[in-house]
Input
Amino acid sequence: MIHDKYEAVIGLEVHAQLLTRTKIFSGDSIAFGAAPNTHVSPVSLAHPGTLPVMNKEVIGLTVKLGLAMNCKIVAHNYFARKNYFYPDLPKGYQTSQHTDPICVGGFLPIDTINGKKNVQLNRIHMEEDAGKSIHDISEKNTCIDLNRAGTPLLEIVTEPDLHSAEEAYTFITELRKLLRWLGVCDGNMEEGSLRCDANISVRLKGTTTLGKRVEVKNLNSIRNVKKAIEIEVERLIKITESGEKIKQETRSFNADNNSTFSLRSKEEADDYRYFPEPDLPPFFITDAYIKSIKDAMPPLPATLQQKYIQQYQLSSYDAAAICTDKEDVFLYDSIVEKIPNYKSAANWVTGPIRNYCIENNIAVQSFPLPVSKIAELINLTDSGKVHFNIASSKLMLALIENKNETAESLAATMNLLQENNTDALAKWVEETLNAMPDKVKEYQAGKKTLIGLFAGQVKKLSKGKADMQAVTKLLEEKLGIRNDGSYNLQKL
Ligand code: ADP
Ligand code: MG
Output
């Protein structure tokens, strides 16, 4: 395989819009979806004589993310002007920390097919977003919406440390999870609050110098990041194999036909004439400030997963499933505080409760049952009184409608309690086996799959109420003691 000769090298530049209320240098709202040009004060419009004022919240969120991603936080910071002309950039420059970022180094751990890996970061810096040019609502004109101009952005840049489309996919998935967890960004790629550019090159396996790279822009979903990388790696290998040279260029991904096309080559790259922003004073980050952010930080998903695996003996699958969302963790923790049925609580949180919330389009914190009722449901199933399938479908829904009842009394009223009284079960087992002497003989002659038939019959006789785990055990016991080939009711 020619692909085995090559190694893909990928570095990502991720832009994340911060979950502040207002813009980075003005009091304009950053709410998504407002009517065009309604969140535009004179500062956003760059009227002469206006002055930016730094939004402190932006620094707090950036330091929080930097600490969570193991970065070094730089003490002395300033902004610079990145000068270029574009109609949706009213100032004629973007205020950015591109030259000297607030967070340097750091890493984010991900799981790969070869085990855990710390994806190395280059930096995280703060900057402002530009407005939007809209090309598709007027035939002749491009329309400009400046609501987004001045929205706070973080640019998170990795080292060229990813080596497959899958790794890049996992990295963004983990990054998005962390951003949401920390309340730094809502991670919504469709609305553009999280955007990713992928830098891609290939090189011969075993070599260490970096190949010429292409940068693919406009990747508006995690799946598209993966697809674009797959396409580009394939394309770059083909070019290399054919003996041609790779041009350093910027490309765009077209999701409609799964292809990339060239936007511009690097030779035409702009000179941004960076210089320090004279209208914003430099700012200093003290150790005490860093400590205050650290102290207020919630435990990170990776730390919690470790705790669930080590202290609660959950599988890493269950632990990861709970930790996909902070709300789920909160609910899980509140449940196991009441009843330490760790595995069952995990099943309920990541199964029926999550499904209910998805189906009803509600957040987990709006799940309509209080923790005490969820605990009742778990107790009922764990004690074998109600089967999990019944409890998680019928009983849970009924309990949501009748919150004043206890789960057990409701199960009794609805006739959902399992029969696990041995005498009652034995009666149904006897009746079943007596009715099918031939099948019993076949079973005893070795056709063990018949146990399913017997169990089904017992279930029918019990009108679905028999605790089937207990029934199977009983059937095996009763059938197992036979050795004379016949079936004798008295011996049961
Ligand atoms: P620029 O700011 O001009 O886009 P940077 O040097 O800051 O360039 O790199 C941007 C991103 O490109 C980083 O994520 C970096 O890891 C990645 N990168 C740089 N060189 C390569 C390469 N040869 N192959 C793949 N990725 C690369
Ligand atoms: Mg770039």
User: Anything to note?
Assistant: Residues 256 and 475 are 59 Å apart (CA to CA). Residues 299-413 form one domain. The radius of gyration is 31 Å.
